[in-house]
Amino acid sequence: MDTRWQNLPHVHHTFAPTEYPNLETWETEKTRIRNQILFAAGLCPLPEKPPLNIKIWNRIERDGYTIEKAYFQSLHGFYVGGTLYRPIDPQPKSHPGIISPHGHARLGRLNESDAASYQARGLTFARMGCTAFMWDMIDYNDSARHLSGAYEDENYGIVHRVPWIHKQDDRMLWNIGILGFQLWNSIRALDFISKLPEVDTNRLGCTGESGGGTQTYNLYAVDDRLHVAAPVCMVSAYMQGGCVCENTPLLRIDTNNVDIGATFAPKPLILINSAQDWTQHTPEVEYPAVKKIYDLYDAADHVTQIQIDAPHGYNLAMREADVAIRMGTPTQPNLIQRHLMTVHSHIYAAPSYLEEFGPIESADDLLTQRLIVYGVGPLSDIASPNWLLRRSGEAESRHRVVLEANNIYCILRAVESGLGISALPDYVARERPNIRQILPDLQGPSFDAYLVYAEELRHTKRIGVFRDFLLSQIAAWKY
User: Fold this and answer.
1) Domain 345-445 adopts which CATH fold?
2) Where in the chain is CATH 3.40.50.1820?
3) Low-confidence ranges of the chain (pLDDT < 50)
4) With a threshold of 0.70, does the pTM exceed it?
5) 421-478 confidence digits (pLDDT tens)
6) CATH number listed for the domain at residues 8-321
């Protein structure tokens, strides 16, 4: 059999993330991915943009925000409906603009459930001081009669897919498909929010989950106007999208969602993922691969990930991933930075280890010890955590490494078990009863920890409460 017909990738195909040796190689591939997406979407060349013909009406005022109905013209005679969320008294050119595509929830942008409350997402952005817009996928809600001629009260997802599944007709010959329509609507949604008088077009963002996550990274792969992005539960090496609106012929030629997700580099990106869906491997697979691309720009601090132990969706915990404790000085100019503490590290061992292998009384004794070290991962960038390895002679001591891990809790438990010795931050190890500090005069590099959050959250009550609690706890520590 022709090898080109063997091992064909499919929706659940497992991809090995590609490594790029230098920035020039990646930039060439990034351009190729952009062109490939546009071609597969039927947007090469890009269509003419007709007037938006914006209409906004039916304003409802609530506590700290407003909700309005809105629509705009995407293509000639083709209108896109959505919901607009605004601060209560928006000022000209003063508010970030957030566009938020929804996923395949039963009721689209009107869905209300624990897994996906779209109304809560929009109004939360408005209360934070942002203008946010959420619009319909093709054949959802106000767009339900545009293409299929059908309408479904109970499950828009059925109507959304039916006109496009297994259709071998002239639309395919002319490269017309639902993915292309939705990508074009995303581009036009960005046009729409940029036209609003209160929106600062230097602060534009996009976030969506599942099918909305696909729309998020497809958009930022082809449109450079976004400044921050947060695809949720979708950047995966294990699953490429379960709907025809996420898969179209010729889309992923020699690429996959991990590389597409990385095309936002070097701009600020957060990969929000679930411990209960196909993004569960993000901390150890997809995030390190994306971070390596950010490293090519010397912008590793512009990308992060957060995993929530919750079902697939955009739930409360995922929406609240808006503060972080950063190890090292943040470089983003638009973040509030509050210094929390300076972290020091020492060498620790379990009494059981010392009983078996003898006391460690000098730095020379390190040359014969069993070592537990940090593997490749986020910890590798923090103040040389493997200083113990270098202190005991890296070339000579590599053969004495008994465990490598990029999870600090894993390393702590390994030390407690008596497997070996390791360098640990004092705030992690000092009060653990099953280990003790050795060679107290031998200290590793220190680093600073910061609480960071967006400027727009400065006066948010829950952020203030959390900040004050954190500072009070740290003040009582002896580190």
Assistant:
1) D-Maltodextrin-Binding Protein; domain 2 (3.40.190)
2) 8-321
3) 377-378, 380-381, 395
4) no
5) 998 888 888 778 889 999 988 888 888 888 877 665 667 676 777 788 888 877 776 6
6) 3.40.50.1820
* Token pair listed for 189: 């949604």
Whole-number pLDDT of residue 101:
95
Residues of the chain with CATH 3.40.190.290: 345-445
Q: Residue 378: its pLDDT value, please?
A: 46
- How far is 97 from 200, CA to CA, in rounded Å? 7
